[in-house]
Amino acid sequence: MRRALAGPWVSILLTLLLLTGLSHPAWAHAILMESTPKLHATVTGPDVAIRLRFNVRIDGSRSRLHLLAPDGSLHTLALARQSTPDILQSQATGLKPGAYELQWQVLASDGHISSGKVAFNVN
Ligand SMILES: [Cu+2]
After folding, report:
1. Is residue 33 situated within a structural domain?
2. How far does residue 72's CA lie from ligand 1's centre (Å)?
3. How close is the Cα of 103 to the center of ligand 1, in Å?
4. Whether the predicted model's global pTM rises above the 0.70 cut
5. CA-CA to 31 of 20 to 30 Å: which in 54, 55, 98, 111?
6. What is the CATH number of the domain that holds 54?
7. What residues make up the domain containing 33?
8. Is residue 71 part of a domain?
9. Which residues surround ligand 1, an ion (CB under 5 A)?
């Protein structure tokens, strides 16, 4: 009886071990926790401070910020030196009024790249 029941339990245990141990740690992916400007916020130009806070440490030297302008042009934003490992900062200057999209691509501490977008408006 014991022996007969052991089979399924061993399978379940092994499956759990595989799921928790061997699969790549999803918790280490960079997830955007907080942004300045906030999503869909309207901010005052022409100069706009950019600040993105993530759930994990970010490799700033291998992360990129781009700004899509209302005229469709894409601009690379220079990243400020990282003062906190989970925060990226930049300054967008000379922004005319209109709808913008901040596009981020970051390298997280687990070695994986993730990306996202934050739309905002400048008045
Ligand atoms: Cu990952």
Report:
1. yes
2. 31
3. 19
4. yes
5. 98
6. 2.60.40.1220
7. 27-122
8. yes
9. 29, 110, 112
Express each pLDDT in 5-54 by its tens digit: 666 666 655 555 555 544 555 556 899 999 999 999 999 999 999 999 99
Task: Give the closest residue to 46 by CA, choosing from 77, 89, 92.
Answer: 92
Backbone angles phi, psi at 40, to 5 degrees: 65, 15
Handedness of CA 99, 76, 86, 89 (dihedral sign): negative
Q: Is residue 5 part of a domain?
A: no
Q: How much distance in Å is there from the Cα of 29 to the middle of ligand 1?
A: 4
Tell me the three state secondary structure of residue 37.
coil
**Alpha carbons 18 and 10: distance in angstroms, whole number:** 12
Which whole-number Å values give the CA distances from 89 to 3, 59, 65, 76, in the listed order?
Answer: 60, 12, 9, 13
Q: Rounded to 5, what percent of the chain is helix, strand, coil?
A: 20, 40, 35
Q: Please state the domain count of the chain.
A: 1
